[in-house]
Amino acid sequence: MSKGSKEAADFLHEANIDIQELHAKMDKAFPGALQPLPANAAGNRIELKRTGDEEDYDFKLCSKLIHPTALMLNHPEATITNQANKKYLAVEVLFYAWPIVNRFHDLVWHD
């Protein structure tokens, strides 16, 4: 994704591919119930490879932050109402997000 602007655009374009795939499944399940999509998304899915164990861990952790429903429903005491867990996850999000933001923006800190 971070090789260049084309790769970044291809990665972001996958949302359109997701919409198209979801629409096709919904149309198959409920024929004639949906309006056609305004345009077809061209392109293929991009397979992203993690660069090591740390990135693999970060990806798994952040996937729980993005899709936390099952964990929250099954263990609200360990997630929603646990302040220590919230603080820990907030820090992990920053550690995960920093390299991503830094790839695309040259951040300069000022005192």
What structural keywords apply?
single chain, 111 residues, mainly alpha, 2 domains
Q: Would you mind describing this structure in some detail?
A:
Helix 2 crosses helix 4. The chain folds into two domains: 1-48, no CATH class; 49-111. The mean pLDDT is 78. The two termini are 32 Å apart. The protein has helices at residues 5-29, 53-66, 69-74, 83-104. The protein has 111 residues and is mostly helical. The protein is built from four helices and no strands.
Radius of gyration: 19 Å
The mean pLDDT is 78
Number of strands: 0
Structural class: mainly alpha
Residue fraction in strands? under 5%
Order of helices and strands: HHHH
Which of globular, elongated, flat, extended, rod-shaped describes the shape? flat
Q: What are the low-pLDDT stretches, counting only 5+ consecutive residues below 50?
A: none
The tally of structural domains comes to 2
Measured distance between first and last alpha carbons:
32 Å
Tally of separate helices: 4
The major β-sheet equals: none
Helix fraction by DSSP (H/I, runs of at least 4): 55-70%
